[in-house]
TrEMBL record, chain A:
The lineage of its organism: Eukaryota, Fungi, Dikarya, Ascomycota, Pezizomycotina. It catalyses: a di-trans,poly-cis-dolichyl phosphate + GDP-alpha-D-mannose = a di-trans,poly-cis-dolichyl beta-D-mannosyl phosphate + GDP. Component of the dolichol-phosphate mannose (DPM) synthase complex. Transfers mannose from GDP-mannose to dolichol monophosphate to form dolichol phosphate mannose (Dol-P-Man) which is the mannosyl donor in pathways leading to N-glycosylation, glycosyl phosphatidylinositol membrane anchoring, and O-mannosylation of proteins. One of its GO terms (cellular component) is endoplasmic reticulum membrane. This is Dolichol-phosphate mannosyltransferase subunit 1. GO terms for biological process: alcohol metabolic process; dolichol-linked oligosaccharide biosynthetic process; GPI anchor biosynthetic process; isoprenoid metabolic process; protein O-linked glycosylation via mannose. Residues 10-180 form the Glycosyltransferase 2-like domain. GO terms for molecular function: dolichyl-phosphate beta-D-mannosyltransferase activity; metal ion binding.
UniProtKB/TrEMBL annotation, chain B:
Belongs to the DPM3 family. It is found in: Endoplasmic reticulum membrane. Its main location: endoplasmic reticulum. This is Dolichol-phosphate mannosyltransferase subunit 3. InterPro entries: DPM3. It is a multi-pass membrane protein. The chain crosses the membrane at residues 7-28, 40-61. Component of the dolichol-phosphate mannose (DPM) synthase complex. GO terms for biological process: GPI anchor biosynthetic process. Pathway: Protein modification; protein glycosylation. Stabilizer subunit of the dolichol-phosphate mannose (DPM) synthase complex; tethers catalytic subunit to the ER. Keywords: Endoplasmic reticulum, Glycosyltransferase, Membrane, Transferase, Transmembrane, Transmembrane helix. It comes from the Eukaryota.
């Protein structure tokens, strides 16, 4: 069952200082959506970036059209969760895709997300770095160990039924995202975890597509002790909350 | 019911059952009662620990490196930048 003419895919992209990446990500989105004949739009939620992200966004509107690129800026750095809530108000599609703007999430996988969603009518499709052909580029042994350890910890504590809990490359049916985001409380990347755990708790069906995650194209991937502690606190918080 | 409640409830139930066997309240073959029951909790903890360690090791060992994806991406970014520049978008 292929996507119907009525299906439209809205990508919400929260940005902060993404002047360099935004045009290329948009180009990749356009290439992949057009290639697969999918109706799409990109909603850019920029948190008052000082580097000129919004100027570039306006140029992109000129190239791709105001029906495809929508710029909805905010007054300051207000956080990821609220960025999605803000973006959702302007979504005209029936499906919403969330992803990162730094090339770690390649738009070429969106077609696979769409196909899987259609095949099983999943409420959510998430990319996974840990199953099937999924993988990462740019991680050394230590980083892989931390990542696997963190995921194992979260899986044991929360039993979420997905192989990659901290991943943030996902396709949602719009009503599902509306509902899940309304119940989510955390900040940072615990937020992504909480959305998935809450979605599962609400009984939504989730499919997985292996993705290749190219981390930190321009530099070192850092994961400090502070972040690890914050992550552990996040998982334990969800353990008692959800 | 939260995950915490589920886990703690399960732990409580298993502990109660174990306590019953430990105190001899459930009739069991003599060999089981004297040799297996006393060490069961330690065995369970060690087995779980071993399982976790194995999962972690296996996960790290089989972690895929997507070098090809990186190479393709670099080429695609170049192509994108050329096209965008031609269309009047600021790219470095």
């Amino acid at each position: 069952m292929a996507p119907s003419k009525a299906d439209k895919y809205s990508v919400i992209l929260p940005t902060y200082n993404e002047r360099k990446n935004l045009p290329v990500v948009t180009w990749l989105l356009n290439k992949n959506f057009t290639q697969h004949n999918l109706s799409w739009e990109l909603i850019i939620v920029d948190d008052a970036s000082p580097d000129g992200t919004q100027e570039v966004a306006k140029q992109l509107i000129g190239v791709y059209g105001g029906d495809k690129i929508v710029l909805k800026p905010r007054a300051g750095k207000l956080g990821l969760g609220t960025a999605y809530v803000h973006g959702l108000q302007y979504v005209t599609g029936n499906f919403v895709i969330i992803m990162d703007a730094d090339f770690s999430h390649h738009p070429k996988f969106i077609a696979e997300f769409v196909a899987l969603q259609k095949a099983h009518d999943y409420d959510i499709v998430t990319g996974t770095r840990y199953a099937g052909d999924g993988g990462v580029y740019g991680w050394d042994l230590k980083r892989k160990l931390v990542s696997r350890g963190a995921n194992l910890f979260a899986t044991v504590m929360l039993q979420p039924g997905v192989s990659d809990l901290t991943g943030s490359f996902r396709l949602y049916k719009k009503p599902v995202l509306d509902k899940v985001i309304a119940t989510t409380e955390s900040k940072g990347y615990t937020f992504q975890m909480e959305m998935m755990v809450r979605a599962r708790a609400l009984g939504y069906t989730v499919g997985e597509v292996p993705i290749s995650f190219v981390d930190r194209l321009y530099g070192e991937s850092k994961l400090g002790g502070d972040e690890i502690v914050e992550y552990a606190k996040g998982v334990l918080g969800l353990w008692v909350k959800v | 019911m939260t995950r915490a409640t589920q886990h703690i409830s399960l732990l409580f139930i298993l502990s109660s059952v174990y306590l019953a066997t430990f105190l001899g309240l459930i009739p069991l073959p003599k060999k089981v009662q004297s040799e297996i029951i006393p060490v069961l909790p330690f065995w369970a903890i060690v087995s779980f620990g071993a399982y976790l360690l194995f999962s972690l090791g296996w996960g790290v060992l089989t972690f895929k490196d997507t070098e090809k994806a990186f190479d393709e991406l670099v080429l695609e970014i170049d192509e994108a930048k050329r096209d965008l520049r031609a269309k009047g978008v600021d790219v470095d």
